[in-house]
Amino acid sequence: MDVRTGSGQAVGERRKNGAHADKGSGLAYGRRGKRGTPRRVAPYRDVLNRLRPAYPRPGRTGHRRWIPSWRQVLGSFGILAGAFTATVAILYARTDIPSDLNAFATQQDNVYYYADGTEMARTGPVDRQDTALEKVPEKVRWAALAAENETFYSDSGISVSGMTRAVSRMLTGGDTQGGSTITQQYVKNAYLNQQQTFSRKLTEMFIAIKLDNKMSKSDILEGYLNTSWYGRGSYGIQRAAHAYYGKDVSQLDASEGAFLASLLKGAALYDPAVSAKNHERAVERWNWILDRMVTIGKLSPKERAGYTRFPEPKAPPKPAGLSGQTGYLVDTARAYVSAHTEVSDADFDLGGYQIRTTFRRQDVEELAKAVEDVRKGLDPDKRESDRNVRVGAASVATDGRILALYGGPDYLKQGFNDANSTVVPAGTTFGPFVYAAALRDGIQRQRGGPRVTVTPATVYNGDDKVAIRTPEGPYWDRSGKIVKASNDGGRSYGPITLKDAVARSVNSPIMQLGMDVGLDRVGRVAVQTGLLAESLGAKVPAFSLGTSTPSAIRMAGAYATFAAKGMNSEPYSVDRLSRNGDPLEVEKPSAERALPVSVAAAVDEALRDSVRRGAATAAAAAGTGVAGTPGTGPDNKSAWFAGYRGRTATAVSLFRIDPKTQEPLKLDGLGGAAASVRGSTYPLAIWTGYMSHGGK
């Protein structure tokens, strides 16, 4: 008897006999039925039984019986690979090349509206013009290929390694840009969208393979160059040539082509006109592309040696219809859309957006009129001191809405927005932040000692030329001199309360107060109420007298915090956004507590006192409930007035800039006044003229 089976016949012998039973029938006998009749099974059952993996593995003990054999591993991998291949084959077969191009070929304007819904401006449509590939110089073509896909003419339309990297980054939450061939990019531009999803990437790959088999490489390259975004509202290399160099694409050389090719990586990052950092990136990318052209044999070393100077593009063109203040308003709103929505610059340039801004048309017009009325008192033709005068102004509601801007005399003549300029020292309009920090945090005159509470009635020395002190003694500057505070006109006030020091814009007590509070604490209050940290000046004694350079928008927003009883709302310029009538989400600021109510009330009272009997009595002409203070910057190189009435705060800055050196000039003798007369009378006049009619 076989000890393994308990029968008189060995298993091997039974299998042998069974294997030869009834050969003529083509069937094998299995287990007998209830009546002893042999059950017939399919001829492949025995084969399947043999192929079925023995798992857990017989003949193994312990954990080893659970470890699959190499045959089992390879078999599993083969099954998975086969399933994946079959899935990809099915998806590939079901993916067709779309019959129509993207809708970007039928572009629309972007329409901007005032707060009341009346139309402000239209920009666009997207500037695009198809051009035949033969009109694009060969070296310009190869500049694009060297930058994006140097193996274009030999690849199959996709980059497996690039797709693998993109999918890997997508799964790990990284950037999926890059790694696509020219064909894939053309598919994305012309047939799909810019979304970075796995399904879109897979569809892009399948269409690219089919397109590569259907279209010639020349046609694909032509389509790619005609549909790529180059920034400045331009789609296609023909319009890009005009936007950056004012010439036809056929007139471009290899150097200019290399720069345009750099824009394919991201025009918002490589347009030199946007920022100094962009310029630096553009030059680096331009050099790299030219070097790659040499490496792949499409530019000789001798030709490369001739391209040593970066081909500076021309300044961006100013769109028509943006004259006066309109262009400044549009730029401000567009910047907000870019920073506070999910809409990319490329999508925005495709058009079709409706932007409802916070700007009130009447306020914009009243602010511009107030500036121009005051400018009439200047005579740049006769007086040197009246030349190169710049004005920036902004009006901001306590809830953060920017109601009006004055960015310059005309956007088409001066594209830079002076309402957003951060080069103008705030002067004594910075004093209320020092005062607020003292009331909130107290002062500390002994190193390591307790902080002492101060009130509006706390008395400081208001005399001229008072030495500034620290807990260790007098403050010495780098030249070895004791720092002293100078009051306007050299006037000494004697003992003076902090409230009066703010109301009268007395420098000496404010400078010492800042040192006693701690300049870091003063800066913190300035930022919490609305100024940008990057606009703050160096933390030296003069910091409290306004060496910081906030924009008029930010200064108005900070003063709105005082008007709002210490609640700060970030300035914003877009109320609603939609595309073809479909609403899109726009981030809006929420109010946050910046100062205790009692501190804001004390600052408010000092600013009202400034109008009643202090340094800003002329502002009373704007009506009742006015609060504000003038400001004069170091060396009389800037002048301000900032204040509010009701729930609207307005800040006006005035300065002179040398057009050649871009250095600030003194305001001495402005308007024919004596050199000793400060320039702050002009911002005060603008503020009063505007607030008398606008900002209500």
From TrEMBL:
Mind telling me which residue stretches traverse the membrane in this protein?
Answer: 73-93
Domain of life (superkingdom): Bacteria
Q: Which InterPro entries match?
A: Beta-lactam/transpept-like, Glyco_trans_51, Glycosyltr_51/Transpeptidase, Lysozyme-like_dom_sf, PBP_transglycosylase, PCN-bd_Tpept
- Write out the entry's keywords from A to Z: Carboxypeptidase, Cell shape, Cell wall biogenesis/degradation, Glycosyltransferase, Hydrolase, Membrane, Multifunctional enzyme, Peptidoglycan synthesis, Protease, Transferase, Transmembrane, Transmembrane helix
> What biological processes does GO assign it?
cell wall organization; peptidoglycan biosynthetic process; proteolysis; regulation of cell shape
Q: Where do the segments described as Disordered lie?
A: 1-41
Keyword tRNA processing in the entry? The reply is no
GO cellular component annotations, sorted alphabetically? outer membrane-bounded periplasmic space
Q: Where is the Penicillin-binding protein transpeptidase domain?
A: 473-645
Gene3D superfamilies from the entry?
Biosynthetic peptidoglycan transglycosylase-like, DD-peptidase/beta-lactamase superfamily
Spell out the family assignment given in the record's similarity comment: In the C-terminal section; belongs to the transpeptidase family. In the N-terminal section; belongs to the glycosyltransferase 51 family.
Instruction: Write out the GO MF terms.
Output: penicillin binding; peptidoglycan glycosyltransferase activity; serine-type D-Ala-D-Ala carboxypeptidase activity
Describe the reaction catalysed, as an equation: [GlcNAc-(1->4)-Mur2Ac(oyl-L-Ala-gamma-D-Glu-L-Lys-D-Ala-D-Ala)](n)-di-trans,octa-cis-undecaprenyl diphosphate + beta-D-GlcNAc-(1->4)-Mur2Ac(oyl-L-Ala-gamma-D-Glu-L-Lys-D-Ala-D-Ala)-di-trans,octa-cis-undecaprenyl diphosphate = [GlcNAc-(1->4)-Mur2Ac(oyl-L-Ala-gamma-D-Glu-L-Lys-D-Ala-D-Ala)](n+1)-di-trans,octa-cis-undecaprenyl diphosphate + di-trans,octa-cis-undecaprenyl diphosphate + H(+); Preferential cleavage: (Ac)2-L-Lys-D-Ala-|-D-Ala. Also transpeptidation of peptidyl-alanyl moieties that are N-acyl substituents of D-alanine
- Ranges of biased composition (kind: Basic and acidic residues): 12-23
Where do the Glycosyl transferase family domain residues begin and end?
118-293
Q: Which named protein is this?
A: Transglycosylase domain-containing protein
Pfam families the UniProt entry points to:
Transgly, Transpeptidase
